[in-house]
């Protein structure tokens, strides 16, 4: 059945999910002998927020379709265990997210004298804090594990840190909550038979730490529909602010403190006009992902401290951020009236940060600190194969990759007889950034002027891809002992970027203005370092000291601006194909070793392996629709 709507006013279809978790869990145990305390906290959210017009004929003054998810989580866990013998405190804090937010117009026909807006957005504010303390005269053990996961990603061995707690909680969540005895309750006679009991138990049975493969998505789209309007906006946005902190303290004859904090945030933000017919005075298709309120999109911190005759401390902070941000148009998209513009943009400005701090003290002391941050970004702005774009004064296609990653690790160990200390800091930014016009597309533009806020160079067609992300990693280690001291600090920062702006094969471009294909790497870096690594290590022992500091900063990238084969460029303005790449790598290493017998090493290595190319394919045609083509300008 076809739905028909005709109104003089506006048509609005909207959905809004507002979810807030404010959880605090505190536990403690104290005893004259041994005290053991443990706790676990789980948050699992799998919302679906959708708004859509499906196979409908709508005539209205304006049409607005919007879907919004707002999520706030404040999850705090604290535990203390103290005993004259042994004190053991352990805590797990776990949050899983797998939401879908979608605003769509699918099929049908939309006619509007005003604007047609399709907007999908997700706004998240997440704070997780896990703290433990274990104090005992003989043994003190403190352990904290905090896990934040969204979408589909691999959390590897992290679950090993909480496997025992997870198993018990999973058994409770999936078990039957009601048994047959409840059906014998007089007050429930005739109301709850065995079939009802079975359904209730199924409804309340859940499997923890699984989202059934559910992705984390924000989607705004017009699909297989005809839309006629004065303007069309399709916008998808993800705003994320997530912090995850774990801390553990232990003191005793044997003091062992360990903290593991892990975040894995994997998601997709997509805005699209797909395989329909859209006619409007101005059209914007934009996908954005990034942080909120000037804060990192994802930050992870781990703190661990241990003191005793034997002190063992370990802090592990691990942060994986994987986001796909895409904007695309396909089908037939046409301008109405003069001064029309089409802007397709995808922007990823996410930042990820990790900090790990560990300390150990005792007659014998050993400390380990691991800080790891990895960002994987896919950013694309595309015009689909065989798409027709007609009548616009300006067409702009922009893929923007900014933000970056920052990692810091600090470790200290002090032992009366001996001290061992290791600090490992790893930072990675891997990205693929594309602004592409697909094979067989036809783009007919009119006039000349500003092709978009990001460029402002007067192009009628501007295809631009840029990346300005930064990578920073620093490590500091201090090891001291009245006997022997051995320490090491290893810092590694790496950027790997594949950047491309292109016209595919058999693309036809004609109009009055300029045609520009530009790929730019590091254009906004100025004098700042794109990749920076710094390692500082100090060790001192009265009898023996050994110390090593290693810092590595590397950049591996490709920057391509290219035009395929059998392309026709019929424009009165300039035709330019430009690829620019600017990389700056800096590595610093400082090692100080003092001892009766002292051994030390400091290594620093900065490297760049880049390829930059501007290319034009075979059989480039110079005229179309009777318009003489300009001479191509190429620069790589």
- The whole-angstrom Rg is 30 Å
Note poorly predicted spans.
Answer: 153-166, 448-459, 623-630
**Helix content, binned percent:** under 10%
Oligomer: single chain
SSE blueprint and pairings:
Elements: E1 3-6, E2 10-31, E3 34-45, E4 48-54, E5 56-60, E6 62-83, E7 86-97, E8 100-106, E9 109-112, E10 115-136, E11 139-150, H1 163-174, H2 194-203, E12 217-223, E13 226-291, E14 298-335, E15 341-349, E16 351-383, E17 388-392, E18 394-401, E19 404-437, E20 442-445, E21 459-467, E22 470-481, E23 484-503, E24 508-511, E25 514-521, E26 531-563, E27 568-571, E28 575-581, E29 585-616, E30 623-624, E31 627-628, E32 632-635
Parallel strand pairs: 1-5, 2-6, 3-7, 4-8, 5-9, 6-10, 7-11, 8-12, 9-13, 10-13, 11-13, 12-13, 13-14, 13-15, 14-16, 14-17, 15-18, 16-19, 17-20, 18-21, 19-22, 19-23, 20-24, 21-25, 22-26, 23-26, 24-27, 25-28, 26-29, 28-32
Antiparallel strand pairs: 30-31
Describe it for me?
- The chain has 636 residues and is mainly beta.
- It has 2 helices and 32 strands.
- The protein has a 30-stranded parallel beta sheet that branches.
- A hairpin with a 2-residue loop joins strand 30 and strand 31 (627-628).
- It is flat.
- It starts with a strand and ends with a strand.
- Residues 153-166, 448-459 and 623-630 have low confidence and may be disordered.
